């Protein structure tokens, strides 16, 4: 066997063994976010099985993306009833399993034109959800509210909106713990440029999908920039048999072409560590709690590269004492198979 090929397989085997001995801190259990509408009817048995499987595999933290506005306002009477029944059972189920639960507000509709008015609606939705749980005497001390997923407002406008939302919620539920993600889709760079809110019981959140060229390769919703398939992780050096693919014709003259040319610098373990260090330094400067509420890679990437990447991000987060939630248990970025095979946990 060629020595380079042998070296490649040895490295892969070592990486998978390393993943086996490390622990991903949390996972996103998707299905209620309505971003990609499923044809399947999601009921509690769907989530109960996931909760039990994750608990068996050592997970203690779940993030639940939910389209709150749809289920509380736009859905028909029957679907509203089914949602309320489902969410109560999920909250009870995670409490029984001694797992923490983030409920994250997807498809909130906040934008620069409506944020003043819509902030009140977001608060109202959260209050309705919490009231429903408290009226049924359901314990919520293990719940965290991710008030708005991936806000797209400018930083100042988002801070104004977030303060209004949080204060509105806390007029009724003063002790609730809130997750506040920075603007520009929960950007680490925007977070590093902000100052903590003048409020207590706030956890700061961010999302990490870098390098985007790798994590979102072949995803239709990100357009031609990510049309190139076969991007490996890490960037292959001269000692490996893995090669970079040719840039897809559709990606020429897009941001993807720039990202492709820079991949030898961005597609490395060191680059991941350096970028996450921005958050670590901010966290230590202000002495606040920070969580990475999403990180992951599409199934369009090859399995060894996915494992390399997930392990790399997970390990850096652990080194920096930042709780992380991999996206997602099932779906386009799903890691269920890795968990079942004990390749990540």
Explain what the structure shows.
- This protein has one domain (3-340): TIM Barrel.
- The chain has 14 helices and eight strands.
- The protein has helices at residues 3-21, 44-56, 68-74, 77-96, 115-135, 155-170, 183-186, 188-193, 212-215, 255-261, 263-266, 269-286, 303-319, 336-340; strands at residues 26-28, 61-66, 100-105, 143-146, 177-181, 202-208, 290-295, 323-326.
- Helix 2 links the parallel strand 1 (26-28) and strand 2 (61-66).
- Helix 2 (44-56) runs parallel beside helix 4.
Would you spell out the secondary-structure blueprint of this structure?
Blueprint: H1 3-21, E1 26-28, H2 44-56, E2 61-66, H3 68-74, H4 77-96, E3 100-105, H5 115-135, E4 143-146, H6 155-170, E5 177-181, H7 183-186, H8 188-193, E6 202-208, H9 212-215, H10 255-261, H11 263-266, H12 269-286, E7 290-295, H13 303-319, E8 323-326, H14 336-340
Parallel strand pairs: 1-2, 1-8, 2-3, 3-4, 4-5, 5-6, 6-7, 7-8
Helix pairs in contact: 1-13, 2-4, 5-6, 12-13
InterPro entries: GH, Glyco_hydro_5, Glycosyl_hydrolase_5
Protein name: Cellulase
Keywords: Carbohydrate metabolism, Cellulose degradation, Glycosidase, Hydrolase, Polysaccharide degradation
Keywords:
345 residues, Glycosyl_hydrolase_5, polysaccharide degradation, 14 helices, Cellulase, 8 strands, GH, beta-glucosidase activity, single chain, TIM Barrel, alpha/beta, 8-stranded parallel beta barrel, globular
Mean pLDDT: 90
Order of helices and strands: HEHEHHEHEHEHHEHHHHEHEH
Helix/strand-derived category reads alpha/beta
CATH 4th-level superfamily? Glycosidases
Strand percentage lies at 5-15%
Rg on CA atoms, Å: 21 Å
**CATH architecture assignment name:** Alpha-Beta Barrel
Work out the count of structural domains: 1
């Amino acid at each position: 066997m060629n020595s380079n090929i042998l070296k490649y397989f040895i490295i892969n085997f070592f990486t998978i063994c390393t993943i086996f001995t490390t622990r991903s801190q949390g996972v996103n259990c998707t299905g209620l976010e309505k971003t990609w509408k499923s044809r399947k009817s999601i009921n509690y048995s769907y989530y109960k099985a996931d909760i039990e499987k994750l608990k068996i595999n050592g997970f203690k933290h779940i993030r639940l993306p939910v389209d709150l506005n749809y289920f509380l306002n736009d859905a028909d009477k029957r679907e509203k009833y089914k949602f309320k029944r489902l969410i109560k059972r999920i909250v009870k189920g995670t409490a029984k399993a001694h797992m923490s639960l983030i409920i994250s507000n997807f498809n909130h509709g906040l934008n620069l034109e409506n944020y003043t008015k819509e902030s009140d609606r977001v608060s109202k939705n959260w209050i309705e959800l919490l009231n429903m749980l408290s009226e049924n005497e359901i314990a919520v001390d293990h719940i965290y509210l991710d008030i708005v997923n991936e806000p797209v407002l400018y930083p100042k406008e988002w801070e104004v909106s977030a303060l209004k939302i949080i204060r509105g919620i806390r007029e009724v539920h003063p002790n609730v713990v809130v997750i506040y993600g920075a603007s520009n889709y929960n950007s680490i760079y925007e977070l590093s440029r902000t100052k903590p809110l003048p409020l207590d019981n706030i956890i700061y959140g961010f999302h990490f999908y870098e390098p985007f060229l790798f994590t979102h390769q072949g995803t239709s919703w990100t357009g031609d920039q990510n049309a190139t398939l076969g991007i490996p992780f890490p960037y292959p050096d001269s000692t490996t048999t893995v090669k970079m693919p040719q840039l897809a014709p559709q990606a020429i003259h897009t941001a993807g072409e720039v990202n492709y040319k820079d991949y030898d610098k961005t597609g490395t373990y060191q680059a991941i560590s350096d970028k996450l260090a921005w958050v670590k330094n901010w966290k230590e400067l202000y002495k606040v709690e920070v969580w990475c509420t999403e990180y992951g890679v599409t199934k369009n990437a090859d399995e060894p590269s996915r494992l390399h990447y997930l392990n790399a991000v997970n390990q850096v987060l652990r080194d920096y004492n930042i709780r992380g939630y991999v996206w997602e248990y099932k779906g386009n970025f799903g890691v269920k198979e890795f968990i079942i095979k004990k390749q990540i946990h």
